[in-house]
Every structure is written in C-alpha cells, then in structure tokens.
TrEMBL record, chain A:
Lineage: Bacteria, Pseudomonadati, Pseudomonadota, Alphaproteobacteria, Hyphomicrobiales
UniProt-recorded Gene Ontology molecular function terms: ATP binding; hydrolase activity
PANTHER family in the cross-refs: 5-OXOPROLINASE SUBUNIT B (PTHR34698:SF2)
Key words of the record: ATP-binding, Hydrolase, Nucleotide-binding
Claim: Nucleotide-binding is one of the keywords in the record: yes
Species whose genome carries this gene: Devosia subaequoris
InterPro entries according to UniProt: CT_C_D (IPR003833), Cyclophilin-like_dom_sf (IPR029000), PxpB (IPR010016)
Classification via Gene3D superfamilies: 3.30.1360.40, Cyclophilin-like
Residues spanning the signal sequence: none
Xref: Pfam families: CT_C_D
Residues in Carboxyltransferase domain copies: 20-216
The name this protein goes by in its record: KipI family sensor histidine kinase inhibitor
From TrEMBL, chain B:
Organism: Devosia subaequoris
Entry-linked InterPro entries: CT_A_B, Cyclophilin-like_dom_sf, PxpC
Segments traversing the membrane: none
Pfam families in UniProt: CT_A_B (PF02626)
Protein name as it appears in the record: Biotin-dependent carboxylase-like uncharacterized protein
Keyword annotations from UniProtKB, A to Z: ATP-binding, Hydrolase, Nucleotide-binding
GO molecular function, one term: hydrolase activity
C-alpha cells in the first residue's frame, strides 16, 4: 500500500471559491460546481453545461446528471483518466449559456395541503392571495433529485420565501405539492419531507414502466393552476 | 422444463440484485446492485450463471427448497454456513439442486452479505433495464420489496453449463484500512478535523442497510465541527457524509440520489465491497489516496 500521509486535497480546492470548479467525487466521477449557494444563474449555467456535454460526447463519459448548482460527470476509468477528463471538461466550461427551447407543462393542483394556512400566515397573506401569487408567472424545473421523479421548481419572488418546517413528516403521499426556500416541489413517490405541504396533484412525474421514467426535465417551464 | 424455488425463511433485507440501473441519477434513481460486487460475481462464476441476477441475503441467511426442476446454485460472500439436505458444504461453493432439495444458509463467522446465483435465469420483469431491487424506490425484484417466507422464484430457460471453478482462497485482503479519496466538501472541514479523520478508528454500528452505514465517532473527531447544511449535490456509493450532530454515515448502493450533508471523503471502488462486509462493532480506519492511485488499484483488481 502506498504511504497514506500528505495526500493533497483535490487540486481544484486549493484556489478558494473560484467557480466553476471541477472536483473528483470518488474514483469514477467528477463534480462540476457552478455555485456554492442556490441561485438562478448557477442553475442556468448547470443546465447549459449539461446540455453541451450531452451534445458533444466525451470518450469515457458514461453519465451526465445535472443537479441544482452542479453537474455530476460519471466516467469509466478504464477509458479515460482524471487529468484528461478534467481538461476536456474545462474546455467546455466557456460558451454561450443561451437556454434552448424547453417545453411548458400545466399542472393542476388542489390547494388543500395541511400547511397551506400556516404558509399564508407566515407570508401575511390570505390563502387566496397566496395561491394567486404562487401560480403567477410559472416556474422553471431546477432539477430532479432526492427521490424518483422529485422535481424542484423555482424561483418564486423573494417575498414568497419561507423556511422549511422544523419537524420532518416521515411520509407524504405521491402527488404532494411542497413549498419552501423560494421553491415549489412535487413528490412523485411517497417520501419523508420537511417542506410545507400546500396541495396535491394527480400528476405523477414517475412511471417505472415507461422507457423514460420521468416527464419533466430540468429547464422545462411549469405553470401551476388551481384544479377545477 | 419449469424450475422453481420456494423461500422457506428469509432474513431481513434479502433482495434480488443484478448489475443495477446506472444512468438514472438525472431521474432521481440511484443504481442499486450488490453491496459486495466481487462476491456477487464469484457466486455467478461458480454457478455458471448466464445473466447477472441473483439473491443477496444478510447475516441471518436464507432457507430455500426446490419445488420443481433442477439447477446449479453458486454461493459466495462473507463466511456463512451452508447445508444441502442437511449436509455441510464448503463456502464459497457450488451445488446441484434437484426437486425436493433443501438449501439452508445459516449465519457464519464473517460478513454481512452473501450471494446465491444460478445457472438458470430468474423469471422476473426488467424494470428500467434491471431486476435489481430498490426497496427505497420500490423498484425491481419481487414487487420492489425484500424476499420473505412463502415467495416462489421461477426460472426461465434451460440453464448454462457449469464449469468446474476452484473457489479462491478467501481471507486474502480482508484486513487493513479502508481507502478514500477526499470528498467534495473536504475543504469545508478544519485542517485538524481532516487530520484526525485519517487514522482515527471509527466503529461500525448496527444501524446499517443498503442505503447507508452509520459509524460511531467514539474519539469525537467531528464533535463540535458544525458545518451548515449545504446545497444538495449528487451522491455516489461510498460517500462519507457527516450529519449535523457529527455522526458519520457511509452511503451505500441504495443511497438517496442527492444530499446536502457535507461529505469528507469517498471510499474507493476497490475497498467498498470490503467495507460493506464489516460487521457492527468492527473498527474502521480511513486512509486517503489519490484518484489516480485508486484507478491503479481498480485495474489490478480486474479479474
């Protein structure tokens, strides 16, 4: 076994918070980080970079998974090494971030969640006023993560921001519409959550029998509507 | 000819596994697959398996009876006790099973996970390209759940030929430190915490399943090192995350696809099987290596 002492930290980390940053995640993936906190421009940069990688295949890359402010690039170490892949990724960091055309999904929500009243109170709004502000303008799918088909949609205007609940609910049902941190999320399976449950939808963004198991893609536009 | 097995007894978290379903992180689905990939592979080689599907069982073991037909079964992983019709057999090993035969796998001296593979193909539906069970996402295997007494497993096809394979001498390389590469948030920890993380023993606890293994930080390496919860990033198996109260958790095959706890390191591929087999109460010591070194180990471990 080699001498374990004094292994340097991954090289990208010695230069402070300069972004974007390419750091190893284990021995078969790299993480390309575009932000240290959740913001709209970092998320847009993530989606543009992921799209660029999808369009321009790099030998040895086997999976590209965009997240909120980072892109996971999984590779086959038998086909490409760390230094070469880091270089190939760095070459693709520049470039236009003009987003491509994305689809719009209209999602009908019954605003009947157990936390709806509390959320409206926290914001100093009536329930009707909250629902109207919540649905106004539409949101972007920021990413899918945490659980199958679970989508984060953002961002609401800053006035519409509440923190998560202090208590986690051990299980909320698939179709629960969740609200926290300036975002609305949709649970596609039964999950535990610390987000506020503000409503429910019949829409399910997860079908394990479909060839593409989820319908919403990061970057798509989502318009929430009051269910008839 | 039809062939089927009946489960007479299944320990907890006994699941059908194959190579898993990689490439679905963007849909919020982690890959699953065997906790000990090497042992899963060895059981398949012993059985003359012609696909990747098999049964993963836990420390309590598993009892099966052949209902109809006949097949070869290979077993490997950890050190269990195995009997065919009451007669002791070597572990790892292979056996021919005919209708009415009973296979009993009992707790043994070492390991958390054992594998049964067959020379015939388990007749289970492919879900998103795999038969692997994810109990977290309720996918694959038998109705997305763990196996239990009374389940019947059917096989398709005639089965491949079984070549005589000499099982490797176990005991090789089952001690020593677990090697990591520094994690995506290693720089968020104080230099002293990183120094102490390396070489200080942690203890494996019984809070373990296919999603993760909780470690006891008896020396207080992470005591008082509070790092605010971070923005969620993708997770891969082997990531060592530190909860807000300082508890380290190693994320395993059924990990959640993204998470926001800081990750100080990631166990390298060459050592993750060995870590998965460490029992509650055992001490684990982490040692950092470079990614390039981990790649060299991966190449030298290729069968």
């Amino acid at each position: 076994m080699e001498q374990p002492s004094n292994q340097p930290l991954p090289s990208g980390k010695r230069h402070g918070p300069t972004l974007p940053q390419i750091v190893p995640l284990g021995d078969f993936a790299l993480l390309v980080r575009f932000g240290q906190s959740l913001d709209d421009s970092a998320n847009r940069a993530v989606l543009a970079f992921a799209a660029r990688l999808e369009a321009d295949g790099i030998a040895g890359v086997v999976e590209i998974a965009p997240s909120l402010v980072s892109v996971l690039v999984r590779y086959d170490p038998a086909l490409v090494g760390l230094a070469r892949l880091s270089g190939e990724l760095a070459l693709r960091l520049g470039g236009s971030d003009a987003p491509g055309e994305n689809r719009t999904h209209r999602i009908a929500v019954r605003f009947d969640g157990p936390d709806l009243g509390e959320v409206a109170d926290l914001l100093g709004l009536s329930i009707d006023a909250f629902v109207e502000l919540h649905n106004r303008g539409g949101l972007r799918v920021l990413t899918t993560g945490f659980a199958p088909g679970f989508v984060y949609c953002g961002f609401h205007e800053t006035a519409l921001t509440v923190p998560r609940r202090t208590l986690v609910r051990p299980e909320v049902a698939a179709g629960s519409v969740l609200f926290a941190a300036g975002q609305t999320a949709i649970a596609a399976t039964d999950i535990p959550t610390g987000w506020h449950v503000i409503g429910h939808t019949e829409f399910r963004n997860f079908d394990p029998m479909a060839s593409l198991p989820t319908q919403l893609r990061a970057g798509d536009r989502v318009v929430f509507e009051v269910a008839p | 000819m039809s062939c089927s097995l009946k489960v007479d007894r299944a320990g907890p978290l006994c699941t059908v596994q194959d190579g898993g379903r990689p490439n679905l992180l963007a849909h919020g689905i982690s890959a699953s697959g065997p906790m000990d990939i090497g042992a899963h592979r060895l059981a398949g080689t012993l059985a003359g398996a012609c696909d990747e599907t098999g049964i993963e069982f836990t420390r309590a073991g598993l009892d099966l009876q052949v209902e109809s037909g006949g097949l070869f079964a290979g077993w490997a992983g950890g050190a269990f006790e195995v009997r065919v019709n009451g007669e002791h057999r070597p572990w790892p090993g292979v056996g021919r099973l005919a209708a009415g035969d009973r296979l009993n796998i009992m707790p043994g001296a070492a390991g958390n996970y054992g594998y049964l593979r067959f020379n015939k193909v388990l007749d289970l539906p492919m879900v998103l390209g795999s038969r692997a069970t994810s109990t977290r996402a309720r996918l694959g295997g038998l109705e997305g759940r763990a196996l239990r007494a009374g389940d019947v497993l059917r096989f398709a096809g005639e089965g491949g030929h079984v070549q005589s394979v000499v099982p490797p001498n176990q005991a090789a390389d089952c001690a020593g430190a677990i090697r990591i590469t520094w994690g995506i948030h290693a720089d968020r920890f104080a230099a002293e915490t990183r120094r102490n993380f390396v070489g200080t023993p942690f203890r494996v606890t019984n809070a373990m399943d296919r999603m993760g293994v909780r470690l006891a930080d008896e020396k207080g390496v992470f005591a008082g090192s509070s790092i605010l919860s971070l923005i969620s990033d993708p997770i891969l198996p082997g990531d060592v995350q530190i909860l807000g109260d300082g508890t380290p958790i190693v994320l395993m095959r059924d990990h959640q696809p993204t998470g926001g706890y800081p990750r100080i390191g990631t166990i390298i591929s060459a050592d993750l099987d060995r870590f998965a087999q460490m029992r509650p109460g055992e001490e684990v010591v982490f040692v950092p290596v470079s990614v390039d070194h981990a790649h060299r180990l991966m190449r030298s471990a290729k069968p």
